[in-house]
């Protein structure tokens, strides 16, 4: 079982330590075959360990005749060469064939997304049929239930590995190369993911969350993302206010101040917020950060308190991450920025 | 012989110790929360991410620094230097700090009233040793 939507302590910890272990708890066809392989390997491990322990017992305590036989040339040929040779070759061929089948052939009706590894977060881009980016997000991927999703995997710096254990095996993200992985969720839910290749510093806090919706819910989610841009209320450039966009509910009177502070504090140098002058590409895209389930790449729940804590002192939470702690801002300023970011849905 | 000379000092020290212990009840005696409540409280704290800003005993990660540490909370003085340190006030504060203490720098947190009581129970149930 995956954690319920309303009650997760942290997605990254669910991915590692959830119970039953997500790696043995498949939620889709691409994870199913990985789990079969995992159980086969666990089973073989148990059998081989059993044989070795039994042989040890015989070698130490067994009757003279058995011990002689165990130490003979025939035992070495059979137990030392023939048996492992056949078993390991068989497992290797089967394992490689099975893992290759995870990406080939690519399903016809698949949705496509691009996930890019950065130190230490995941960039997410939703692609249309032509491969053009229709929406950017970070550290979170929403998919419809029952539909295969091809994930194009890139890296912008070092080698990372994309792994949502409930949905598929892991696949490396390699600089200068595109790898493809197919995932599919067969039941709605929230599935934790991690970077599974050590990538320096706070690698252990580089998490991800995949959310599977029923197709109708997913369509509603997508439609909501496309229209909820809160530009009209706080856009202070005359003549550039898109008329079609509804204002998002205002929380307190600090909205304009929050936007201004975000721009003045240099946040925009690294972060992009659609519909504003914030156009930085070095850090996670914040166009939809208010509706995200987590902050800090799958590690914190997203609420006003954690947003303030993250902006004000991200280095205490995720030491070594590339966002400096903005502890030069006052509590009021941090809250104003947090409120403005909450409205970016 | 020497021991005789020091007796008055010993007596004075013992008296001072007695006087000091009388100043305040042991913290544990003030409020003993239900273990079930404290268990739910810890779960609520983890789910809400309180530790993003506060160092909280029992939570290894994160150990936020931007807010005050909650080590030894049941032995602290006023809540946020403003409210009498009672479980009721603490529950009110962790759920809606700006309402409990106007001008508070801690924002309202997504906790139900019951969860906020559990969180208060957890913070009071912390072992001082």
TrEMBL record, chain B:
Protein name, entry field: C-type cytochrome
Domain Cytochrome c: 36-127
MF (Gene Ontology): electron transfer activity; heme binding; metal ion binding
Signal peptide: 1-24
InterPro entries xrefs: Cyt_c-like_dom, Cyt_c-like_dom_sf
Superkingdom of the organism of origin: Bacteria
Keywords assigned by UniProt, alphabetized: Heme, Iron, Metal-binding, Signal
Coiled-coil regions listed: none
């Amino acid at each position: 079982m995956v954690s319920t939507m309303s009650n997760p302590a942290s997605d990254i910890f669910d991915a590692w330590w959830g119970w039953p272990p997500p790696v043995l708890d498949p939620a889709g066809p691409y994870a199913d075959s990985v789990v079969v392989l995992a159980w086969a390997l666990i089973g073989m491990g148990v059998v081989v360990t059993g044989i070795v322990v039994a042989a040890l017992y015989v070698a130490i305590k067994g009757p003279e005749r058995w011990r002689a036989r165990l130490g003979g040339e025939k035992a070495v040929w059979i137990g030392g060469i023939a048996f492992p040779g056949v078993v390991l070759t068989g497992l290797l061929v089967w394992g490689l064939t099975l893992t290759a089948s995870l990406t080939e052939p690519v399903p016809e009706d698949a949705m496509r997304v691009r996930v890019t590894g950065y130190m230490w977060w995941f960039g997410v881009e939703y692609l249309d049929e032509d491969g053009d980016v229709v929406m950017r997000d970070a550290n979170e991927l929403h998919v419809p239930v029952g539909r295969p999703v091809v994930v194009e995997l890139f890296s912008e710096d070092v080698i990372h590995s994309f792994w949502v254990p409930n949905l598929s095996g892991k696949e490396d993200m390699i600089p200068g190369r595109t790898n493809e992985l197919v995932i599919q969720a067969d039941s709605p839910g929230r599935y934790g993911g991690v970077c599974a290749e050590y990538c320096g510093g706070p690698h252990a806090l580089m998490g991800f969350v995949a959310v599977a919706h029923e197709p109708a819910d997913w369509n509603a989610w997508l439609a909501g993302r496309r229209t909820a841009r809160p530009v009209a209320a706080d856009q202070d450039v005359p003549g550039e206010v898109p008329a079609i966009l509804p204002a998002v509910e205002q929380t307190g009177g600090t909205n304009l101040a929050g936007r201004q502070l975000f721009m003045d504090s240099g946040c925009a140098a690294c972060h992009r917020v659609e519909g504003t002058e914030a156009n930085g590409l070095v850090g996670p895209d914040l166009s939809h950060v208010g509706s995200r389930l987590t902050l800090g790449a799958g590690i914190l729940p997203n609420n006003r308190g954690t947003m303030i804590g993250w902006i004000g002192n991200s280095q205490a939470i995720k030491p070594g991450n590339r966002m400096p702690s903005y502890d030069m801002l006052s509590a009021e300023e941090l809250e104003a920025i947090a409120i403005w970011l909450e409205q970016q849905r | 012989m020497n021991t005789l000379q020091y007796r008055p000092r010993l007596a004075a020290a013992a008296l001072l110790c007695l006087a000091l212990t009388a100043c305040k009840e042991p913290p544990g005696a003030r409020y003993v929360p239900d273990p079930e409540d404290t268990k739910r409280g810890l779960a609520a704290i983890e789910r809400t991410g309180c530790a993003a800003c506060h160092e909280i005993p029992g939570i290894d990660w994160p150990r936020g620094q931007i807010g005050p540490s909650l080590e030894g909370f049941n032995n602290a003085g006023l809540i946020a230097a403003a409210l009498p340190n009672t479980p009721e006030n603490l529950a009110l504060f962790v759920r809606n700090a700006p309402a409990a203490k106007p001008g508070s720098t801690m924002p309202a947190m997504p906790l139900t009233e019951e969860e906020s009581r559990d969180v208060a129970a957890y913070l009071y149930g912390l072992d001082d040793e």
